[in-house]
Amino acid sequence: MTDSTSRYGTRWLRALLFMIAALVPVAILGAATAKNALAMAMATQSLRGTFTTQGIVTNDAVGIIIHPQLAKDANGNTYKQYVVKLQATNATVQGLCVAEKMSVFGQTMTILIETGDQAVQVTGVWATLHTVQTSLNASGSLQLNQNASDVVAGGESLGGVLGELGITTQGATLGPAHGTLQAANIKGASLADFHARLVPGDVSC
Predict the structure, then answer these.
(1) How many domains, in total, are found in the chain?
(2) Is the Cβ–Cβ distance between 110 and 100 less than 8 Å?
(3) How would you classify the pairing of strands 142-147 and 156-157?
(4) Is 177 within the bounds of a domain?
């Protein structure tokens, strides 16, 4: 490693620590020791996040709603856009990658959170997606065209209201997926399964 590379890496490490501590909405990783293993909680919230995964499998209930929300364009005008909210108690995620763009001191940077190609066990999963392309294969009972206010997964409501579209399935497999991410949360996983890095430029998964 050259001196310039070392200085560059140190500078961006300091910038990363500053961004995580001060600006919040990027990605927050927390670890705690429990039963000789590392538990992890991850949250991300953004208007510029993208994700890919090779697949998600769960034997628990999965709740999905299509939910309208207000947004603003570049001119400050408000408009209605639809997002997909998804929630499950436990799942196995294969090959997950989340890319979060940001500006640090005028430089475009990307935080990448990855699991590699391995299958990872996660709990307390929910996500709000702007766009998503995937396939859904229900492995248990399936309720389509359900009122979103009735959609519950893991004993928790997805926050839908009467008149919105909802789907509930008792177990599901989602095929390879990619899309744009507004917010996501994983309450529990092994920290060793996730790798976060800050890289220069606009980088995709």
Answers:
(1) 1
(2) yes
(3) unpaired
(4) yes
